[in-house]
Amino acid sequence: MELHHRAAETVPMTNPDRPAPPFGRALCAMVTPFTPTGALDLDGAGLLAERLVAEGCDGLVLGGTTGESPTLTDDEKTELVRAVRAAVGRRATIVAGVGTFDTRHTVDLTRAAEQAGADGALVVTPYYSRPPQDALEAHFREVADASGLPVMLYDIPGRTGTRIEPETMLRLADHPRIVAVKDCSYDFLGTQKVLARTELAYYAGCDEHILALYAVGAAGCVSTVANVVPRQVADILASFEAGDTARAARLQLRATPLIEATTAAGLPGTVTVKALLNALGHPAGPVRPPLRPATPETTTQLLSLYKNFTAL
């Protein structure tokens, strides 16, 4: 319960019917900073995490898609959790990306994340092998049974090739440690069906859906663009929660050009966000291959959109 109380204090509750979110409301899908030679930059990770928390993020997701999880070693994932926990203490929750295409490996990473001090585990749908729904359900249950960490399911069929179908979500909701979903399904109807019938805490995993999903009862967001505009992302949710829905809508719409440029313009969000962070002098460093850095022209365009948005 300490986790829930800590998260609830960050954004004042004005609606007693909305349950306290399990991992906070404004979560950032944090990039993983690297040194110029591509090594893990733990000092940079700590500095970036401190800035994100100071500017409104009450949760950090480490080693996820934006965190370049496929290129991180198991030891690096654990070291990252330890370093960020040391930097932010208990001012924010830490959700560790532990999902792989191998159930045994995912179980091992979940246990390691728990020992390193994570508050939760982000478990992506197993990719490449495309398991059927019954196998998918068994995978998530085995991972959830393997540790004491609460689990956030990560539904992103555009990357994994497999959807967590709503009926599967409904069954998984009965597991006491499966408590949340990072929703990148682009199935708003399916999401609402699960929200209406379960207590799963849904988090918008696509920045263009932050306000829309929150308005129908989601817990918050896991945002990529929050790496560069954490205060503004948190403000969308805080404005809606305070009853100023018009302001929340204005903020969401004003963010649209930047959101489109960072997450929907043909480059992975990791590439665009790291380009912006580097240009702004924040810890980020290069991306790891096979990703390639943004061109100077793309970086200039991103920086212009960032300045236009933050000047409003």
Q: In summary, what is this structure?
A:
Keywords: Amino-acid biosynthesis, Cytoplasm, Diaminopimelate biosynthesis, Lyase, Lysine biosynthesis, Schiff base. With 312 residues, the protein is of the alpha/beta class. The protein has a domain at 26-243: Aldolase class I (TIM Barrel), CATH 3.20.20.
Can you give a write-up of this model?
With 312 residues, the protein is α/β, with parallel strands linked by helices. Helix content is 48%, strand content 12%. It has an eight-stranded parallel β-barrel, surrounded by six helices. The longest helix is centred in the C-terminal third of the chain and has 19 residues, at 245-263. It is globular and about 45 Å long. The record marks 65, 128 as: Part of a proton relay during catalysis. It is found in: Cytoplasm.
Terminal-residue CA separation: 38 Å
Q: What would you report as the Rg, rounded to the nearest angstrom? A: 18 Å
The CATH superfamily of the domain at 26-243 bears the name Aldolase class I
Strand order of the largest sheet: 1-2-3-4-5-6-7-8
Q: What structural category arises from helix and sheet content?
A: alpha/beta
- Uncertain segments of ≥5 residues (pLDDT<50)? 1-13
CATH C-level category of the domain at 26-243 = Alpha Beta
> Which percent bin holds the helix content?
40-55%
SSE series: HEHEHEHEHEHHEHEHEHHHH
Bin the strand percentage: 5-15%
Shape: globular
Please identify, by name, the CATH architecture of the domain at 26-243: Alpha-Beta Barrel
* Mean pLDDT rating: 94
CATH fold category name of the domain at 26-243: TIM Barrel
Total helices: the number is: 13
Catalytic activity: L-aspartate 4-semialdehyde + pyruvate = (2S,4S)-4-hydroxy-2,3,4,5-tetrahydrodipicolinate + H2O + H(+)
Binding site for pyruvate: 66, 222
Organism: Streptomyces shenzhenensis
InterPro entries: Aldolase_TIM, DapA, DapA-like, Schiff_base-form_aldolases_AS, Schiff_base-form_aldolases_CS
